[in-house]
Amino acid sequence: xxxxxxxxxxxxxxxxxxxxxxxxxxxxxxxxxxxxxxxxxxxxxxxxxxxxxxxxxxxxxxxxxxxxxxxxxxxxxxxxxxxxxxxxxxxxxxxxxxxxxxxxxxxxxxxxxxxxxxxxxxxxxxxxxxxxxxxxxxxxxxxxxxxxxxxxxxxxxxxxxxxxxxxxxxxxxxxxxxxxxxxxx
Length: 185
Known about the structure:
Elements: H1 13-21, H2 30-42, H3 48-61, H4 67-70, H5 75-81, H6 91-109, H7 114-119, E1 127-128, H8 142-154, H9 161-170, E2 174-175
Parallel strand pairs: 1-2
Helix pairs in contact: 2-6, 2-9, 8-9
GO molecular function, one term: DNA-3-methyladenine glycosylase activity
Catalytic activity: Hydrolysis of alkylated DNA, releasing 3-methyladenine
Pfam families: Adenine_glyco
């Protein structure tokens, strides 16, 4: 039986699997949210499928996104990462994951809950949109702009409002499955 998916998915089995089982499903684990935020930052200027296909390489290169380990990465480790063909070898993007790990740790070491902070931008529960086509889906919203500003103030980077909105979609803070998609409900 043929299922109807969001128009952006296409025929790639990797994209279909991601769409059907990951994208738009609410994530509340702080460390998992940290990982997904970092991966969304790697997407800047690229298509998401590029990063999706490299996700396992990123997990291997960045210690399964354990912030405590990433925060210890030094210049020698950055140079090593710049030689890794399994990730996007952009120095700013590599350094952004390290910078974000340090910002994340600083935030939680103050006794804060990263998940609660991120989810506060949508009132703590998923915002369900009812877009009929992808053309109606915004690239950013006031919520993603506010999240971007707050994250930048905390020391995160590669977290512009468009990246934040893509992140919010990916982790289910907003449900942007189109109304004809079998995942919308």
